[in-house]
């Protein structure tokens, strides 16, 4: 008869080559992926290397120049805003003066009209007065 412990030894011996083969496949696949992705990452890292110091300085100078330009434009904008406000205030004062003159002219025109109508009535009255006096 076959001893049961021998049966377990046979099973362990027959599964060992499969485990060794599976481990070998995993190691080979890991090496393949490491070589593929390891090599693929390095060129990208080289492409992403920082620019030389001269290029950085040029970029800094360009940014500084742009900042100065923006500050100059903002200062000019503030000056123009102040000038526009001053012009609007002067225009408002001038409109007020024009309205006052227009009102005064209308008042004078009404007085002249009333004087003319009084004058037109007065010769008729004066002729009646002359007739009555005689």
Query: What's the end-to-end separation, in Å?
Result: 182 Å
Average pLDDT across residues? 81
Q: Unreliable segments (pLDDT under 50, ≥5 consecutive)?
A: none
Indicate the percent of residues in helices.
Answer: over 70%
Structure explained in plain terms:
The protein is mostly helical and 134 residues long. Among the domains are: 1-46; 89-134. Helices cover 93% and strands 0% of the residues. The termini are far apart.
Q: Short description, anyone?
A:
With 134 residues, the chain is mainly alpha-helical. It is built from 2 helices and no strands.
Question: Any key phrases for this structure?
Answer:
mainly alpha; about 130 residues; 2 helices
Please specify the SSE layout and strand pairing.
Blueprint lengths: L3 H44 L5 H81 L1
């Amino acid at each position: 008869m076959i001893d049961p412990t021998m049966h377990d030894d046979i099973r362990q011996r027959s599964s060992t080559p499969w485990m060794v083969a599976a481990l070998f496949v995993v190691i080979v696949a890991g090496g393949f992926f490491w070589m593929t992705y390891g090599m693929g990452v390095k060129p990208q890292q080289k492409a992403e290397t920082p620019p030389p110091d001269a290029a950085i300085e040029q970029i800094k100078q360009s940014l500084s120049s742009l900042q100065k330009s923006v500050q100059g434009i903002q200062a000019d904008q503030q000056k123009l805003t102040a000038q526009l406000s001053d012009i609007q205030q002067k225009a408002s004062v001038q409109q007020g003066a024009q309205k006052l003159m227009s009102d005064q002219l209308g008042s004078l025109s009404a007085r002249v009209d009333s004087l003319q109508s009084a004058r037109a009535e007065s010769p008729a009255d004066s002729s009646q007065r002359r007739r009555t006096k005689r």
